[in-house]
Automatic annotation (TrEMBL):
Source organism superkingdom: Bacteria
Organism encoding this protein: Streptomyces nitrosporeus
Protein name according to UniProt: Rpn family recombination-promoting nuclease/putative transposase
PANTHER family membership: SLL0800 PROTEIN, SLL6017 PROTEIN
Length: 288
């Protein structure tokens, strides 16, 4: 079962794809400025029974007029099977769309990030036919944002920093800076980034720190949906939050879909639906 923390790690790029360009520019890799982004299907299945599916796939339009595909994979641990899947993703995307693809792997621990960053060579050692170089973001290279004013200038990046460094000993300072920065936003936007942060932190100790901050430091968020959202482990509250987020984004939620959401008692499933509700293009995409 895919955890809600996994969902948040890649879905933040759908909410704010500019994080990709800004982060790698800070690392000295001059990607062109993003001017537009389109969300593409993540299904890379060719024939049954083999199914291959990315976490997030975006078509990025640049100021230079040279688009590229940004595929994002959230990786929680080492998985040897990915060493064969990732080259396939890149080759398939290039063949299907005719556009240069970039595969970004996001991790929450440095060991997994450094494992993912190793080049993948396909072919005999005497003549490798293909060498795959992934772009990797993790605790080893994502900026640590502990200054509230810095966080306020780029809240999506500060949110991603908080999620990525959730296991860092300095996590409390990072979360405090983000909580302070969220006070500069309107309530709806702040709730979205606040919930993305909580989902991304999963069941880590940092998640408990974040819930305390949201309950105390952000006491000005008092809408019914946000109070229910912060009720730990209550499926009823999370189900109502999914409906509320969809309605706040302007979607008409059919009665059948509303009943299905409210009847769900699995908090992991509800967490995934909530993460999808932030960026999905339809109610059907949330429940797919």
């Amino acid at each position: 079962m895919v955890k809600s923390s996994h969902e948040a790690m890649h879905r933040i790029f759908q909410k704010e794809p500019g994080i990709f360009t800004r982060t790698f520019r800070s690392l000295g890799i001059p990607f062109p400025e993003t001017v537009d982004v389109g969300v593409l299907t993540t299904d890379l299945t060719e024939t049954e029974p083999l199914e291959r599916r990315l976490d997030t796939l975006l078509r990025v339009e640049t100021a230079e007029g040279r688009p590229y595909l940004l595929a994002v994979e959230s990786q929680g641990r080492r998985d040897p099977a990915k060493r064969s899947s990732w080259p396939y993703y890149l080759a398939y995307l290039h063949a299907k769309y005719g556009i240069d693809p970039v595969l970004l792997v996001v991790c929450q621990d440095e060991a997994t990030a450094r494992w993912a960053a190793r080049p993948i060579r396909v072919g005999p050692p005497e003549w490798p036919s293909l060498t795959v170089r992934l772009m990797v973001l993790g605790p080893h290279n994502v900026p640590v944002v502990t200054d509230p004013s810095t966080a306020a200038r780029d809240i999506p990046l500060a949110t991603f920093s908080a999620i990525t460094h959730g296991k860092d000993p300095n996590a409390a300072a990072i979360l405090e800076a983000l909580a302070s920065a969220l006070k500069t936003l309107d309530e709806e936007t702040a709730v979205i980034f606040g919930e993305l942060t909580e989902l991304g932190l999963g069941d880590s100790p940092a998640a408990h720190i974040w819930r305390d901050l949201m309950a105390v430091d952000l006491s000005f968020f008092r809408s019914e949906s946000s109070q229910r959202l912060r009720a730990e482990g209550k499926a009823e509250g999370k189900a109502e939050a999914v409906v509320q987020v969809l309605e706040q984004r302007g979607f008409a939620v059919p009665e059948e879909a509303r009943d299905r959401i409210r009847a769900c008692a699995d908090t992991e499933v509800l967490g995934r639906w909530l993460a999808r509700a932030v960026t999905a293009s339809s109610v059907e995409d949330v429940l797919a």
